[in-house]
Amino acid sequence: MITLLYGTRPPHRAAAAPEGRNLWLSAHDFAAATGWELKPEGFCQADRCVRIPPGRGIVDGQRVNLSAFADLLEHPVVRDEAHGVWALADAAPARRAALQSLEAPDFTLPDLDGRPHALSEYRGKKVFLVSWASW
Amino acid sequence: MWQGVYDELKDRGLMVVSVALDSGGARTTRPWIDAAKPTYPCFIDERHVVAELYGMVNVPNAVWIDEEGRVVRPSETAGSSDSFRTHLDRPTKQMSAEGLAERQRLRTEYFDALRDWVLTGEASAYALPPDEARRRSPVVTDEHVLAAANFRLGQFLHAAGHRDAALPYLAEARRLHPESWSYRRQTWELEQPGKAGSPTFWAAVDELGDRAYYIPFAMGGARRTPQSPHAPGRE
């Protein structure tokens, strides 16, 4: 089993085994882990699709090679072999573009009692979003 | 810290959303929340998701978001300054009177700006025009996103009980994004509870020299007006 940590999404566990630097996932696991769908147009998320260049070993039928996908989208990858955990972060240009759009990204987090809340629940108000910590 | 401003302005359309960038989760945050008893929402962000999404690098950092979900002030220091570096007695953690006065002055200035925005909306000089908000948006480098992947992996392993395996990734996150004090202090704390406020922390603060711990924030002077004698927001 491999645990996949993709950007700020929750962890996803998948029955997969690395082959060298490659990690082949079923299209189902790939979508559950990353939020990207494998479609005839390419990798699609919301209203955006990325074409899959042929001959780079990115896709094989209904399987996706996560390492090659990461290369395509310029995601940094860090992996811990001993515990079977792979972490992929957003690419820097994508993060910069998101920040430059000035659209406040939504997120869902628990309160102290574990109840989930989304930032978007407060749309229509002016939101003062502020960080703190116990440390 | 924010309860007063929330009480005053909640009926004028303000929502305070506080996010604990805290991998200790409810265990470490509950005593603080129980003591402060805030009536605004407090979310627990063990993975530092909000810091990554908004480019926050310390606490308190804040983002102002308007009714349409548009950022009108990107992440910045929320009313704090480096006065603690010179005015705090480290052994006793007591701030001098001068330090307390400086802290109060900055908070008042910050609250006044926040109030002005809540009451006057985009006419407020503190609601940055889009060009200025973009200019002030956090810069994200390849090192920063690699730091985020390392932090995520280290935090996950630590939470799963693999502390020793987690530490190299947490140290790498710190190395790759040294400007992030939330990474630094969180990862120290995960190494050893209490380390975030230990001599290690103070040595790192001292190492800053002339550089800021809390990046100074410029509240005003951002509105482009024909009378403006110089480029806006570069004071």
First-residue to last-residue Cα separation of chain B:
28 Å
* Rg calculated over all Cα atoms of chain A: 17 Å
> Beta-strand level of the residues of chain A, as a percent range?
35-45%
Order of helices and strands of chain B: HEHEHEEHEEHHHHHH
Q: Would you tell me the structural class of the helices and strands of chain B?
A: alpha+beta
How many domains of chain A, as an integer?
1
Oligomer: heterodimer
Chain-averaged pLDDT of chain A: 96
Main beta-sheet strand count, sense and barrel state of chain A: 4 strands, mixed
The percent of residues in helical segments of chain B reads 40-55%
What level of helicity do the residues of chain A show? 10-25%
What does the model show?
The complex is a heterodimer of chains A (135) and B (235). With 135 residues, chain A is an alpha+beta fold. Chain A has one domain. Helices cover 19% and strands 38% of the residues of chain A. In chain A, the strands form 4 sheets. Chain A has a 4-stranded mixed sheet, covered by helices on one side. The longest helix of chain A has 9 residues, at 92-100. The mean pLDDT of chain A is 96. In chain B, the strands form 3 sheets. Chain B has a two-stranded parallel ribbon. Chain B has a two-stranded antiparallel sheet with strand order 3-4. In chain B, strands 5-6 form a two-stranded antiparallel ribbon. In chain B, strand 3 and strand 4 form a beta hairpin. The radius of gyration of chain B is 19 Å and the shape is globular. At the A-B interface, strand 10, strand 11, helix 3 and strand 14 of A face strand 1, helix 2, strand 2, helix 3 and strand 3 of B.
